[in-house]
Amino acid sequence: MKRVLIKNGILVDKHNDLHQVKKDILCEDGLITDIQDVINDENAQVIDAEGLYVSAGMIDIHMHNRLREAVMDVDKLGVYRGVTAMIECGSAAVDEADKFAAEAKAAKTKYYALLSGHSEHGFSKDMADMDVEKINPTHYLECFDRYPDIFLGIKVACSNTITNDQGYALVKKAKSIAKERCLPVTVHVGTFPPDPCGLVEFLEAGDVITHTYHGKEVSLFQKDGTPKRSFVRARNRGVLFDVGHGSASFCYPVAARAFHKGFTPDLISTDIRLSNINGPAYSLAIVMSKCMAMGMNLLDVVDCVTYRAAKTYHLDMLGEIKIGKSADFTFFDIKEVNLELEDCYYNLQKVSQCIVPEKVMVSGGGESELYQCTEGYSKA
User: Fold this and answer.
1) How many other β-carbons are positioned within 10 Å of the β-carbon of residue 289?
2) Directed axis angle between helix 298-305 and helix 284-293, to 10°?
3) Alpha-carbon distance 38 to 353, whole Å?
4) Cα–Cα distance, 192 to 203 (Å, whole number)
5) What is the mean pLDDT of the chain?
6) For residue 195, how many other CB atoms are within 10 A of its CB?
7) Record: fold of 3-55+322-341+358-372
8) Which pLDDT band holds residue 269 (cuts at 50, 70, 90)?
9) 286 exposed, middle or buried (CB, 10 Å; 0-12, 13-18, 19+)?
């Protein structure tokens, strides 16, 4: 589709003051060209969004389709679940850069990656091959320079079960490399050691802590939900905090206490993979719905997966409903439901409103394509 007119949608874009307002959007050659209360254009293909919310295309900044598990059709994690762009978070490696780039270009979903900060080899080899001294910064920089529109930073999973005693050294090495290209580092915090209070001291504005609300032994929070001082200082200097739900990294009691103290996430992501698509992660929309059930509002959860996500990873054309930006959209409903959704620790949360993607539009190369959302949590 070259020229598209979206009619009657309820627009949701906090950054651009579109606070659930009904407007029309005209798109041409893959870009947003006009936003008005009413637009009529006989030459455009019309998408009637009556009764649906329309956001900028949702971005899942933390997913995995290249771990030890079988690889899926990546679009089942993307466009068919209401996500227009996603980031393979640390399970793409330097020596697989060409292969990943080919996969990214073939996907319907806009598919990016953070390079593994554990090893220059594939994640399945990391445990055996992980050695900070074997990481050659030149190889990473060459990869960033060869594919600047695909590789967006570095991810280090700092957990005793993954990095053993090398967590601090790997984060320091990743930071030194990423700073050469002004790219962010994402750090997974999990099983102690290393101590997350020490890890966060290496991070600067624009870097990301993921798995913020895990329920493991050493938390980012005091028992009453007050964030530890290291993380207050980190947020004040611009470090960002991501949900990163996953299979073992989201705990309702931890999140609820932190939310009550005002420490809500900057970013929301799934950490989705083959092993948790049928629970407890399900989809980005379900993780957003869980956050709403704990007190976040619609504008904020959408902002976490659109504008903030795009800004964090320098995806400058994405994340906004604004003239001149890419015509990527998620069309969704909010259904009244009576669900109990699980976290990663067998706790249940009552959910009365659920975000349910209906379709997405993805643009590129001067064209826009529409996809119906067919994957996700069936109870919703």
Assistant:
1) 27
2) 150
3) 29
4) 18
5) 93
6) 14
7) Urease, subunit C; domain 1 (2.30.40)
8) very high
9) buried
